What we know:
This protein is an alpha/beta fold. It has helices at 32-38, 132-135, 139-154, 174-186, 207-212, 239-254, 275-284, 287-293, 311-319, 331-343, 385-397, 405-420, 430-437; strands at residues 10-15, 62-67, 99-102, 122-128, 163-169, 192-196, 264-270, 295-301, 324-328, 349-353, 371-374, 465-472, 475-478, 485-486. Helix 3 (139-154) crosses helix 11. The model is unreliable at 1-116 and 489-494 (pLDDT under 50).
Amino acid sequence: MSRSLSRGRRAVIAVVAGALVLSGCGGTRVTDEAIQAAVGIRADEAPVPAAVAGAAAPAPDVAVAPAAPDAVDVGSAPNTADPVAPTGAAATTATRGDIAAAGRPAARPSEGRTATGPKSVVRLGAVGTFSGPVGSLVKDTVTGLRVWSQAVNAAGGVNGHPIELLVGDDGGDPARYYAMQKQFVEQQGVLAFLFNTVAYAPAGNNKYLDTEKIYTFGTDGGLELPYTNPYVLTATPAGLTLADGMMLALSKALNAKGRSQGPVKLAAFACSDFGLCDNFDRRWSNPDVLRKSGFELVARGRPSLTQPDFTSQCLAAEQAGATTILLGMDSASIRRFAGNCARQNYRPQFATADIVVTRDLPLDPTVDGLLVATKMAPFTDLRVPGVAEAHRAFTRFLPGQVVTGGMVNGWIIGEFFAQAAKDLPDNPTRADLADGLYRLQNNDLKGMTYPITLTRGKPAPRHLCYGLVAISGKKFTTAPGPSLDCVKNGRPLASLDDY
């Protein structure tokens, strides 16, 4: 099959989990043809499903995608998290059919050193709900992680260690989530996890990784877990603090605090589908948060991401006099919501979070002017050294793609690990990684986030910083002002309500 591809390309097999099944839900996946066109694959070159070695027959969740030097191809498998092929080498599958490997050729857990260098391969994991409507909120983070691993390996690895990234889609099944984590650790020798959607299928249960003393460097952001569990880390605001940051970013954009005409009339709609939205709803309706950020809540709701129409929510917000609508939803729902409001000739100021916006959102004219609150430096701001570096990598390894907040979020998580692992010995242990992690002192990851300092045995301190991006002229644009605003003139947040 690979002989039909252009010269210099190799077949890359990426195996992913089956689609998350939700009754009545509609997917938002870009068509295979559109993905192939975006990465320069002609229709007559498009890869077709093929069986994995040892498998009885082709499966619908197996994709084969070509890989060209200095380029990254996006696979055509249904419901994938934009699988990325490793540069200059073919990836192989791990031992189960619900795992995707990226970043370098897979090796057996017993293999200590590579054939091309003296230092061992460092295997890292990511397990979560990366398919279906819920998965659409986090799959760009996985894309960012894959590009980060490509860029790191092209530059010689982390302190000379090649990186292998194993990605597992749990399909929304807690049992599968735990099984894949255990397999990654006990069979694949994963040293740490870069990204787990711990608030989704496992509902916050991190017992296995806690018992094994294995660090997770980033999560979906839906829980307070990074502030209570020393093995669950974050380089950006999470949980209730993330929700607060969105309010403050929007407040700054609208100059809501201290207006002579009174507070801004706000309608807030947070989805009912997962835990992060629970935090949004809780904080966006908190009287103290509203007062301190300059808003008056006049309408509130918990619609579902699978809801086909939001006209009733639009009418409720309009009748209540809302001039601004804050949405905790995925991009597909945001487009439907804005379109439904426009059909009622109601065009309020819309706002949402950076981690939910997808590359196609700016193309919808009904969301022009939408404000995107960021939990990091704006993902568009090339004045920030770390963001500029990420964009260069995306240009090289994912050419032609619009860079999103989720993608840069994945890059930040990868860089967080890289800073902790920069002094890893030839054959590192978990204790070696922990030593590097607790040596970090005021490290802001090249300006992308707040200064990170951790204390051994203690959870991460709470920080609240935020940035702002806007959609204008069918593009994501950096809002005026400093790249990153932090509460209390840059000092870390002491308590949730200490504004």
